[in-house]
Amino acid sequence: MGGGAALLLALAAGCPGNSSLPAEGPEQPIRFSHAQHSGELRIDCRHCHTLVSRTAVAGLPTVAKCEGCHAGVKKDRTTAEMAKITKRWEERRPILWTKVNDLPDHVRFDHGAHVRSQVSCGACHGEVNKMTRVRQVESFNMSFCVDCHRAEGARLDCTACHK
Question: Could you give the percent of the chain with pLDDT greater than 90?
Fold first, then answer.
């Protein structure tokens, strides 16, 4: 087999570089930079994703949460994106974020259980603190989850993850 054919077979088999995951996350109604907030400003994930420690979903910040921080920013430092937050606050309209990470309906996943087990956010979501626009970095397929469960000594029975 020639070198080119071997390379194609290796890529098709799932070697690094063969990914159906997007290189960039979806556009959002407000250009929110995790690189700035969790990277430069070192705001902990749990400050905005307040449900992550105790429920199945991480939760998204309310407009009140965003406005609570940004209301203190001086007018000469306010950006167009911050103005969008203020406008939503004044109009009492939520920010309708586009979902980035999604699991099939047959999967049972609990963020709280993983946080309580001290699984870092980055283990599944990558280096979000370096992302201007958040994107999905893992396929969240069964082998990804089973490999992690094995490495961490977590449950492997079907009902741990499947409804």
Answer: 74
